[in-house]
Each structure stands twice: as C-alpha cells, then as structure tokens.
Amino acid sequence: MIDEIEKLFIERFIKKNRQDRLLFELSGKKRQNGIGRFCHYTEDLIKPDRIVASGNKLYSDEILSVAEKYNVSGLCYIIAYNKNLDRKTCTLNDALNLVLGNGMAGIIICDNLVVIETEQSFGTPTRYILH
Fold first, then answer.
1. CA 126 vs CA 3, 63, 115: distances in Å
2. Quick one: pLDDT at residue 99?
3. Is residue 88 within 8 Å of residue 98, measured between CB atoms?
4. Cβ contacts of residue 94 below 8 Å, gap of 6+?
5. Inter-residue contact 45 to 38 (CB < 8 Å)
6. CB neighbours of residue 53 within 10 Å
7. Position 32 pLDDT exceeds 70
8. Where does the pLDDT of residue 2 fall: very low under 50, low under 70, confident under 90, or very high at 90 and above?
9. Which alpha helices (DSSP H) does the chain contain, by range?
10. What CA–CA distances, in Å, run from 41 to 11, 58, 65?
C-alpha cells in the first residue's frame, strides 16, 4: 500500500505521464523498480519547473541552506532503494546523513521541499532540490 505522502509527492513533483506507473510500482511488489527509476532517469520523471537546484556539487550544508529559505521544519519522509531506509521518518539533517552518499537512489520529502539523490556511478551523484 502506498503512503499518502508518496501520493502527494507524485502529484506535485512527477510528470503527469509518469504518475500512474510510478504509483503502481511504489504500491506493490515492484516498489524497488519504481525507486530504481530515480537511479538514472530522474529528469525523465520530475517536473522541470519544480527544480530549484541540481548538480553533483550540492552538499548537505547547501541543501540545508535552501531548506531554510523555504521554512522546512518537522519530520521528513524517505523513499529509498536501501530497504533499511525506505519509509523512514526523521529530521532533514538526519535524512541527509542517511541518504546522501548511500550509493543508490534516495528521495527525502519534507513539507514543500524534496531532495533526490541519484545512483552513484562515479564521483558524487547528481542531486536535485525540488520545490
């Protein structure tokens, strides 16, 4: 079963033509496939007008600075390829420590801000901040 937070994330930040498939995958046995799409195809999934910043030089301190501008507070929700992190809730700072540099795709959903990290092939993976 898919969480309400995940539904809202998909409605707000995922391209319309990709929403149904991603909802289907995240809601069942194909969850890893859905999350895996963010490893290499993030730009095919997300709405480009929602991107606030992106690149492989976005580090925790810069992400926290952007989050401060958007008044992010409270707990964040993690969607992660790593099953030990998937569906976990924690503060943004803790979520960044858990997800960034993990090697696989991870999505941190906080209020009106989303941080996505793609799979690490070499060097720092690409990261996206969405609002």
1. 26, 13, 11
2. 96
3. yes
4. none
5. yes
6. 16
7. yes
8. low
9. 4-13, 16-26, 31-40, 42-45, 60-69, 92-99
10. 18, 18, 26
Exposure on the CB side of residue 13, measured as CA atoms within 13 A: 26
Asked whether the predicted pLDDT for residue 113 surpasses 90, the reply is: yes
Percentage helix, strand, coil for the chain under 3-state DSSP, each rounded to 5: 45, 20, 35
Q: Which pair of structure tokens corresponds to residue 69?
A: 């501008």
Indicate whether 8 pLDDT > 70.
yes
Q: What is the pLDDT of residue 90?
A: 97
How many C-beta neighbours within 10 Å does residue 105 have?
A: 26
